[in-house]
Design goal:
The protein is of the alpha+beta class. The protein has three domains: about 120 residues, Beta Barrel (OB fold (Dihydrolipoamide Acetyltransferase, E2P)); about 80 residues, no CATH class; about 210 residues, Chloramphenicol acetyltransferase-like domain (Chloramphenicol Acetyltransferase, 2-Layer Sandwich). It contains nine helices and 21 strands. A hairpin with a 4-residue loop joins β12 and β13. The protein is globular and about 85 Å long.
Length: about 450
Amino acid sequence: MDVLMPQLGETVAEGKITKWFKSAGDSVTPGENLFEVETDKVSMEVPAIAGGVLNEIRVAVGDIAAVGAVVAVIVDQAAASAPRPLVTGSTAPVAPRSAPAALMSIAPPEARPAVKLDPFYEVRTPARNYGPARLAGGLGVTPLARRLAVESGVDLGAISPSGAHGHIVARDVEAAIAQAARRSAPTAAPAAARSAERIKSLYAPGSYAEIPLDGMRRTIATRLTEAQHTIPHFHLSLDVTIDRLLQVRAEANAIARQREDGTPSFKLSLNDFVIKALALALQRVPAANAAWADDRILRFKSSDIGVAVALDGGLITPVIRAAETKSMTTISTEVKDFVERARTRRLKPHEYQGGSTTISNLGMYGIREFTAIINPPQATILAVGAGQRRPAEGSDGVVRFVNQMTATLSCDHRVVDGALGAELLAALKDLLEHPVGLML
């Protein structure tokens, strides 16, 4: 049977094989790790779905293959007497094996049975009856690409496909959106329209190093350009006094250190409190716990809070699900686990996709305040600055120094109006300034 490059997320169109756990001629059992694949966001071990002998490896370590491409072949023991050659050191692009013309269309679900490999992805095996339906002038379109095209008004018939089996994938639509945005921005800086060679000509040879864009940086550039051009942002800021919060945190962490071996059972950060406070604030102001979905607004029942994690060359936002229901220690443990696995690219797609909103905290770098770009389709993102000693006038008219931090909420005006955003920030401020309630 053919071993295919799996789909590792809605927006993932290709993957790079970074390791083979087996060599050609080795026996393979179902569920045993076969190879490791890396995308722009994650690195994941892929298990075998059938037993037998690994007869052929078609994609060598370091090569990139499209989703759905054949990367290896497994045969039964009887057919393994004449193994096919191992591919090593190939530098040619790897394309999916040719498929019947009917496979280029989107088959009905009953004609495309799914073989489950793992809870986080699936590979669909071709069936004999593919169905006659075709999309976009005869080209297949992935569900995410179709949704992006509908939201942005992009003509699918004018897009050149780059996905497996000639399908139009999300990156094709995102490229068309970015191109349309450039065309509709007559006041854009001239440098934005210059080619790389033209820009390089402005600088002396040897005065710079050229850094190729990897998949993560390309994805970030595409998505944030799209967000900035298509989402009507506005920003709201306020200062939060955190003296009581710092005291509660210190007392909680002191209790955590009172174990027999002297090691703390947990250590709460300020960001853990912000996550819990924002989750509860969204429950108080449910109209802000929403996302834009083109012809409707999706209002969420749970507060799923994304946390921006900086990586080498980019960032990723793992999501704390139903954060309003979780204890501070549970949130702290989940965040630490996510950060550790994010930095080694071990997150699963379902752990960083979706989310009600996102928190971006640059306080550890001493940044007083900043604004963040919304991560679509979310409708808000919270930018958190550093806690600082600042003079503030009390209710008695006396000016004292207090610990404060500035929180700035970026809002999608299609979903969150000014008054609604202000109500959400006020709820956040109240929860952070009365932190005992966050510990209950």
